[in-house]
What does this fold into?
Amino acid sequence: MNEFQKARLERLLETLPAERLDEVLAYIEFLMQRHGAKDPGAGSPLQAIAEKVEGTLRAAKMPGVAIKGTMDVMGTAGRIMDGLVAAGKAAAAEVRKAAHEGVASREPGAVPSGAREAGKAGEEAKGEAPKEPAPDPSA
It folds into this structure.
């Protein structure tokens, strides 16, 4: 499908009431079965769940407004999950980066500089005087 066909379909679908959209979906599924086209499947597990929920609501003859509201909530949940996944990936990348930089830049047994400052800040927050580092015995 080219971008002009896709835009035309979207424009036409937006003008239809929810009940007619059900008919359009049913007709597309009918054509796919008739011509042996493969079902592209859901894009994500949440998409698969949303499609099953929508099918169940349609089979139960729920009003179009109820189906639309439910699917809007499912869409919002999907966007939240996408945001959480992106945040998790970013956090994992930062941990990998910090671990790589820490391993490459320090000697065995050395305390990372960030840990030293964090320890001092914690002691000051407790009202304790920061501990001075122990003298180097090799000096």
Q: What stands out?
A: Residues 43-103 form one domain.
